[in-house]
Amino acid sequence: MNTAVAFIAAPLAVAFLLPLLGSRSSWGSRAAALLTLLALAAVGLLMLLRPAFPQVVVIGGWRAPFGISLYVDALSVMLVVLFDLLALFALWFQHQHGQEKPVSFDVLVLVLSAAAAGAVFTQDLFNLFVFLEITTVAALALSAPQTGSPRGVIRYWLFGSVASASMLLGIAILYSGAGTLNLVELGSRWSHLTPPVQWLSGVMILLGFLVKMEIVPFHVWAPSTYRAAPSSVGLLLSGVVTGLAAFSAWKFFALVLRGGASLPPVSGVFSFSQALFGLGALTLILGALAMLAEKDAKKLLAFSTISQMGLVLMAIALGNPRAVRAVFFLIFAHALGKSLLFFVTGLVVSRRRNSEWRSWHGLGAASPSLVWFWFLGTATIIGLPLFPGFWGKLTFIGGALEMGLWGRVGVMLLILATVCESVALLRVGHALWEREGEPSPRDEVPSPRVSGRLSYWAGALALSAAILWMGLWPAVFSRAFVTAQQAYAGDGTPSVVRTSTDAFAQRSGHHSRREGRMTHRQGRISHRDGNVPARHANVSQGR
Fold first, then answer.
1. What's the pTM value of the predicted model, to 2 decimals?
2. Which residue range(s) make up the domain with 517?
3. What letter would DSSP give residue 58?
């Protein structure tokens, strides 16, 4: 079995086996889930230390346009490792500080992890849809409250159903015109489709991505869902589900829509990319303003996620090389910073049983680590210098200033949104730090249990270390981001189009199942013309 396939198959296999260990949560099932995620993260880190990218896994050996392939590069492996680690910390934290859950909680987290890996790697549009739907179903089940009103989850289900129907109908229309669902093939055939097919399929598929990214006006399900769900689930929704949707939207936008350039203008004034940019700008500023009026910490973090996803959509719409690298920086910075904020929120809520941040006064006096971790997460989100968010926003500004007036307007809106977000998040940190009388033993956080302290410190310190590493040594990540941006644009060696196309092997009656390695010829023509330079790629047939 290829390593990339293992990121999908292993969590699914363990998820199906866990119910056999008992109908209730047990140490055996818990340990199996945690060790699976830890092992996958370790395998991913080993792949990054000994890179052999890009790798293209051809499932079953079927050639295009019917074949399914997984494209594995440094960026995709980094994303999968990030998602697995976030799932690991969320699962561990939930068992120690959150509501007690049955074995199904472990199963759902593993299924979500497997689907996230599949969506990151796949180069097939229908497979991408299926994996995204699996993550949505798993997130819905994880978000369902044990007590209280299920209104938020019902909204999530309704909007998710509309998004699923829209994407599926768009995929059907696109397949009827193009005759393939391979993202690379779709990109090469897109210009041959009729304008109605282009518009209907492109808009309907993007609509599904916008709902999953919590873009205004499709965001209304998010605040109440985050409020009702455990903080560990909020971590998964914000760090994994929305980040995965953003990456998937960028992949479709880059490979199929060619950065929006292949769609006709919305009107005589606005292009399709500019319309998306405006929608992202509206989401950015409205989400930041809503944070100022929010008194519930979980809903405040939900509006912060909405605002951040608006910025990511703006970067996707810009489409130039700097903006694309900003997309990657922002996804990673948001996942790390917001996960750390949810860690602190979950710990406080588990102690106070109240998510109203105004009631948190004095907790920082008894447990200073809460304040430090909150400010570290805040610095990452708002983009203080030498933090990951800073590099993402700086790269975005560089890309936006290349695009003329509307890019400069976007920069001004970003500055305004950053000020609003800073005020909202720093108010919570100040409430944690501010004393109201002498601290009492009741305020001490974390839990006195050794296992509880271990899960808190292990998760918070690991996230803090990742934040500092990415902030102080961004070149380690930037190299992978530049390579991925050039590969998807067809401007570098290797190229997604060439390596994916050449990877499809002619299926014979008795083809070999053994993994093989092939060396491909060089090319010299650009992605825009349909032929892309590529020096070599590792190709294997999936079992």
1. 0.88
2. 511-542
3. E
